[in-house]
């Protein structure tokens, strides 16, 4: 028989007793899962769980008749797993120097636990509650918890380790597109901090690191600060910084990035030859003059539709075609607009000219 019929847990000890109704002077033999335990010859035996769970039987022997008793029926000794403890931290990482962290020990079932906390495999004598608060960086380490109490089960499994480490403050990174802008363009500033989880952002301008004031042309969305219709007043040095306000954490401020804003270059479109009348079959050339337009391409348009893009500033039309022509400069590296749109030239081609076949000098003389 089992002397204690409560639920049995790993680590418990159980005393078994073998009763034989008749006679005395028995030597008692114990079997587990039908295998004899040779060293157990007393009326009682004590087993430790869970390594000795199984089917138990007993039998008596003696030197006089009857020499053997019947083998007892089987008694099944089973083991219930101890409750499991686990540790979680708030806030969840990364964690930074100067922060306080709350650790909580959760136990899967039962109540009335006294909580024991371990750091780096050493029992901490003071905290006995479900939660404990630690300060960083001094109390970083590997934490485990377990529960104990006066009734069954008397303890839990020791939790797995939760490592609390102190991370270095990240540095914000600022990117600006484009950082050399033209008046009226949209400029986008993007601030990034590692995985970007949980950060809000503050933006600074110029050497005073004054917080950027939002206006009708400025707005923020998450990690992005947008300047629409850029003006010369938007020029300057910009920084950004990430913050987790609920934890009073700020990143290292970003390196500064310069924004320049300037007017687009002026484009002037001219027609050669500049006759008062252009006739069918004649050849004309449009010239796009952009001062300071190195490393650009010249784009020509007819009624707003692109008809010619080259690195040369001239567009030869042979034969001449009707249309409203303009030109502008494009940045060679990315195709973005580099100049203002030029003046427009209306080209109207007439029927066959009486001057067709004349040399240019003769035509000029007759026009005079």
Which structural traits does this protein have?
368 residues, six-stranded mixed beta sheet, Immunoglobulin-like, 4 domains, four-stranded antiparallel beta sheet, mainly beta, signal, 44% strand, 2% helix, Ig-like_dom, transmembrane signaling receptor activity, single chain
Structure overview:
This protein is an all-beta fold and 368 residues long. It has 4 domains: 13-77, Immunoglobulin-like (Sandwich), CATH 2.60.40; 85-164, Immunoglobulins (Immunoglobulin-like, Sandwich); 173-262, Immunoglobulin-like (Sandwich), CATH 2.60.40; 265-350, Immunoglobulin-like (Sandwich), CATH 2.60.40. Helices cover 2% and strands 44% of the residues. The chain is built from 1 helix and 32 strands. A hairpin with a 2-residue loop joins strand 9 (114-119) and strand 10.
């Amino acid at each position: 028989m089992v002397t204690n019929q409560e639920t049995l847990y790993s680590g418990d000890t159980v005393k078994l007793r073998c009763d034989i109704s008749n006679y005395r002077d028995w030597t008692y033999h114990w079997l587990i899962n039908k295998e004899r335990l040779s060293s157990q010859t007393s009326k009682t035996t004590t087993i430790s769980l869970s390594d000795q769970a199984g089917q138990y039987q007993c039998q008596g022997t003696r030197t006089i008749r009857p020499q053997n008793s019947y083998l007892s029926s089987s008694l099944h000794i089973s083991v219930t797993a101890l409750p499991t403890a686990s540790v979680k931290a708030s806030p969840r990482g990364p964690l930074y120097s100067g922060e306080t962290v709350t650790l909580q020990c959760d136990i899967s079932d039962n109540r009335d636990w006294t909580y024991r906390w371990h750091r780096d495999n050493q029992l901490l004598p003071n905290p006995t509650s479900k939660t404990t608060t630690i300060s960083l960086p001094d109390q970083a380490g590997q934490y485990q918890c377990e529960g104990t109490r006066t009734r069954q089960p008397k303890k839990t499994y020791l939790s797995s380790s939760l490592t609390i480490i102190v991370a270095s403050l990240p540095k914000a990174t600022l990117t600006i597109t484009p950082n050399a802008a033209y008046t009226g363009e949209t400029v986008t500033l993007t601030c990034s901090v590692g995985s970007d989880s949980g950060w809000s952002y503050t933006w600074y301008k110029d050497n005073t690191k004054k917080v950027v004031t939002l206006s009708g042309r400025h707005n923020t969305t998450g990690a992005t600060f947008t300047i629409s219709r850029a003006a010369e007043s938007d020029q300057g040095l910009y920084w950004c910084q990430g913050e987790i306000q609920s934890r009073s954490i700020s990143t290292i401020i970003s390196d500064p990035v310069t924004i320049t804003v300037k007017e687009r270059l002026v484009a002037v479109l001219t027609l050669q030859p500049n006759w008062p009348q252009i006739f069918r079959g004649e050849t004309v050339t449009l010239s796009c003059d952009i001062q300071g337009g190195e490393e650009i391409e010249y784009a020509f348009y007819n009624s707003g539709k692109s008809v010619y893009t080259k690195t040369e500033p001239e567009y030869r039309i042979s034969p001449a075609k009707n249309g409203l022509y303009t030109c502008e400069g494009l940045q060679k590296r990315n195709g973005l607009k580099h100049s203002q749109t030029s003046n427009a030239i209306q080209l109207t081609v007439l029927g066959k000219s009486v001057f067709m076949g004349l040399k240019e000098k003769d035509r000029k003389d007759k026009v005079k």
